[in-house]
Specification:
heterodimer; A: MetI-like fold; 14 helices; B: alpha+beta; six-stranded mixed sheet; five-stranded antiparallel sheet; 8 helices; ATP hydrolysis activity (chain B); ATP-binding (chain B); OB_MalK-like (chain B); sugar transport (chain B); ABC_transporter-like_CS (chain B)
């Protein structure tokens, strides 16, 4: 709004503050819960100020040394698995889609449009839709409980390929021709010209894919059965027992807080690049 | 340095009966060190021809030789050419130095030689202060000079320019035109320069190729092309304002056009349907007591001269007069007097010079 009226400013601020509260309050509760003992949390009303058990709760979560009844896999290991998966998915996707977009935009080869449409069709088939057959394949290839099983089926997707295809098509043809006259072969052109030009798009895509990979739930739930291959999101789920069993909510909440840290860090650290990549591509 | 031979060069897009032929057999011999301008309206195939010499377009027929070597199957990088693009095509993420050095780096030229060559080119083009800048921090004229520098450091046999001045403003264009001329005099490299601007063509060319619809209409020095246009197309394209072209019927020393009969200073080359060409500036007198009657319809003041638009009978006719003369008034009838040496005759059907 460009209008300058105090009442409107006040109103818009109120709405924004309300929005922030709605988003931030659950986070705050999570944090508060992660600093109390399990007994303190289940009392009604739940304490609204941080307690004194922060360090021991987080230590118990990371090392898996809590005394409760459910899954006691150490969160440190889970975070590592999650990190590997998120990085694997983000980097794998970027690498594959850069190369396939390069092929589609700059090369003439037989059945080019067929391949293009084959990639396009995968857009309509996310993991959830093809989960049965994909599980069968991964299981037959003995990739259950492995990093390969966790990442490869998620790497195959067309979104990133399209993003790069669109970007490559905006690169002026003269640049390709200038490079040809300069004697740069296709891979040299890719490395020296296209990659540096797409760096901001790559950064933006990395952020999106890292978070996508980190937050995967359904697929890891299927392909991991061993504690030492749980990503942290699955770990949280396994910590919560069904029925009447007492849950160590303090540890669960500490784990949730820990699970939030890496994606938040990635976003905060790469924010500048991320926004640049979404807004303007340097051409 | 090298000569360039174009022999029956043909360009077709697509194959079979649906093929779209855009260049219809161009023949030209370009001498070593010559500055040739290819000029024509948009879509005449001039850029395509240049890109075929560069190796960016395949040659569908005929052959192109640079020096003694036929280059039809040679990669652009191996043709020993350098090209300056209309939008300059600078690598946006590289500094001016890297832009100029990139081709040499790929050729694995030693680092200190690259530096020496880039520095030398930068000095010629007055870019020495800008070597660390990125293209986006440069003005249009500076970018243009970087593009030329990138061409110069390669030490090529042939320079190819694809409308390199059309993105500059008028003043800078005139200035860069002079710089290109100077550069050519110093380096003496065979150059092909494509433009749609006939002023650029006239001022830069040692010889010019006028193209129309994928055919070469005429090749010659600017003087020849101006003085003896080979067709009505060339006559209308070169010169500003263009040559007056009157389509009529010649009969001895009379020319019937636009409902009136004009006396000719000398007999037409033959009787029958002809097109008569006369440049607006080529009249001996425009206020004689007798001659061709021109009814003035409009006058434009251009500073040093005036353009007078009027009609000979029903035909439009333009006349260029010195601004120092007292101008005619609109509606007045002027009597034009002319001499035979300024008349151009073209066949009415083929539009070729007779």
């Amino acid at each position: 709004m460009i209008e300058r009226r105090p009442a409107l400013t006040l109103l818009s601020h109120l709405v924004l503050i309300l929005g922030v509260l709605i988003v931030a309050f659950p986070l705050y509760i999570t944090f508060v819960a992660s600093t109390h003992t399990a007994q303190e949390i289940v009392q009604a009303p739940m304490p609204m100020t941080p307690g004194s058990h922060l360090l021991e709760n987080y230590r118990d979560a990371l090392l898996g040394s809590a005394t409760g009844g459910n899954s006691k896999a150490p969160v440190g290991r889970m975070m590592w698995v999650s990190l590997m998966c998120a990085l694997g998915i983000a980097i794998g996707k970027i690498a594959i889609s850069l190369l396939s977009a390069f092929a589609i935009v700059y090369f003439r080869f037989p059945f080019k449009s067929f391949f293009f449409w084959a990639i396009f069709v995968t857009l309509m088939l996310p993991v959830e839709v093809r989960i049965g057959p994909t599980y069968q394949v991964v299981s037959d290839l003995k990739m259950l409980n492995s990093y390969a099983g966790l990442t490869i089926p998620l790497i195959a997707s067309a979104t990133a390929t399209f993003l790069f295809r669109q970007f490559f098509m905006t690169v002026p043809d003269e640049l390709v021709e200038a490079a040809r006259i300069d004697g740069a072969g296709p891979m040299r052109f890719f490395k020296d010209v296209l990659l540096p030009l797409s760096s901001t798009s790559i950064a933006a895509l990395f952020v999106i894919q890292f978070i996508y990979g980190w937050n995967q739930y359904l697929w890891p739930l299927l392909v991991t059965t061993e504690e030492n291959m749980y990503p942290v999101v699955i770990g949280i789920k396994r910590m919560i027992a069904g029925g009447d069993a007492a849950n160590e909510w303090n540890i669960v909440m500490a784990t949730a807080m820990l699970a939030m840290i890496p994606p938040a860090l990635v976003v905060i650290l790469m924010q500048k690049w991320f926004v640049k990549g979404l807004v303007d591509a340097e051409k | 340095m090298a000569s360039i031979s174009l022999r029956k060069v043909v360009k077709r897009y697509g194959t079979g009966p649906k093929a779209n032929q855009v260049i219809h057999g161009v023949d030209a011999e370009i001498a070593d060190g010559e500055f040739i301008v290819i000029v024509g309206p948009s879509g005449c195939g001039k850029s395509t021809l240049l890109r075929m010499v560069a190796g960016l377009e395949e040659i569908s027929g005929g052959e192109i030789a640079i020096g003694p070597r036929v280059v039809n199957q040679v990669e652009p990088a191996d043709r020993d050419i350098a090209m300056v693009f209309q939008n300059y095509a600078l690598y946006p993420h590289m500094s001016v130095f890297d832009n100029m050095a990139y081709g040499l780096k790929i050729k694995k030229v030693p680092v200190d030689e690259i530096k020496a060559r880039v520095d030398k080119a930068a000095k010629i083009l007055e870019l020495s202060q800008l070597l660390d800048r990125k293209p986006r921090a440069l003005s249009g004229g500076q970018r243009q000079r970087v593009a030329m520098g990138r061409a110069i450091v390669r030490n090529p046999q042939v320079f190819l320019f694809d409308e390199p001045l059309s993105n500059l403003d008028a003043k800078l264009r005139a200035q860069t035109r002079l710089e290109i001329q100077k550069l050519h005099r110093e380096l003496g490299v065979t150059s092909l320069f494509v433009t749609h601007d006939q002023v650029e063509a006239m001022t830069l060319a040692q010889r010019m190729i006028v193209m129309n619809g994928g055919r070469m209409e005429q090749i010659g020095t600017p003087e020849e092309v101006y003085a003896r246009p080979a067709s009505t197309f060339v006559a209308g394209f070169i010169g500003s304002p263009p040559m007056n072209l009157l389509k009529g019927r010649a009969e001895g020393t009379m020319f019937h056009v636009g409902g009136i009969s004009l006396p000719l200073p000398a007999a037409a080359p033959r009787d029958g349907e002809l097109i008569l060409g006369l440049r607006p500036e080529h009249l001996d007198h425009w206020n004689a007591s007798q001659g061709w009657p021109l009814t003035v319809e409009m006058i434009e003041m251009l500073g040093a001269e005036r353009l007078v638009y009027g009609r000979l009978g029903s035909e439009l006719f333009t006349l260029r007069i010195d601004a120092t003369h007292v101008p005619p008034t609109v509606g007045e009838t002027l009597m034009l007097e002319l001499s035979a040496k300024h008349l151009h005759w073209f066949d009415a059907q083929s539009t070729q010079r007779v």
